[in-house]
Amino acid sequence: LYSLSQQDYQxxxxxxxxxxxxxxxxxxxxxxxxxxxALAGREKLVEYILSIKPEQLNDxxxxxxxxxxxxxxxxxxxxxxxxxxxxxxxNHKNWQGHSPLQYACSKGWLNIVTYLLEIGANxxxxxxxxxxxxxxxxxxxxxxxxxxLLNWKQKPNINCQNNEGNTPLHIACEDEQNACALLLxxxxxxxxxxxxxxxxxxxxxxxxxxRQIKNFLRIED
Length: 221
What we know:
Elements: H1 2-5, H2 9-18, H3 33-39, H4 43-52, H5 67-73, H6 77-85, H7 100-107, H8 110-118, H9 133-140, H10 143-150, H11 168-174, H12 178-186, H13 207-217
Helix pairs in contact: 3-4, 3-5, 5-6, 5-7, 7-8, 7-9, 9-11, 10-12, 11-12, 12-13
């Protein structure tokens, strides 16, 4: 089905017109042609398929990903918008608990992040590890999107803790994302919260970042 989704649109439309059963076939990934079309950003093809099979809009593959999640993952804003306009669930999660917003954040698609938040995506959504979008951004070092989320009108929970008790600041410190760590602090993140191993974010810092944080917090050695 992947190779089929890459075919010329006119040719595909003719094939589907002759044999609509093509739209009912699932591959080894439990995906319909619709899933692959969404992943490839084939908006016209997505629109055509849904005009015939609207019930496939929120169908999931073997990772519990909808066409919307796949379009978001690949950064196809117009396809995302079309799927949402048809009623796709913007807060649906795949088997790891990842939502469209979390994928847009971790992949660096600021335009999709902006759109999803504007239409009401849950800014504090967490995955199966209880990682929020802030955790993912702190880990990947996507400073621009982190700044955008922290300045959003609905403020995210900056001190949310995941299953290990780590806040986004813990993650930024542990992964040596210095700029993200300092930005989190500037926006009110606490450096005093212990995780399940009784370690604060400062305990996870390399010496250079630890000095910067202590200077910011005016902590003397």
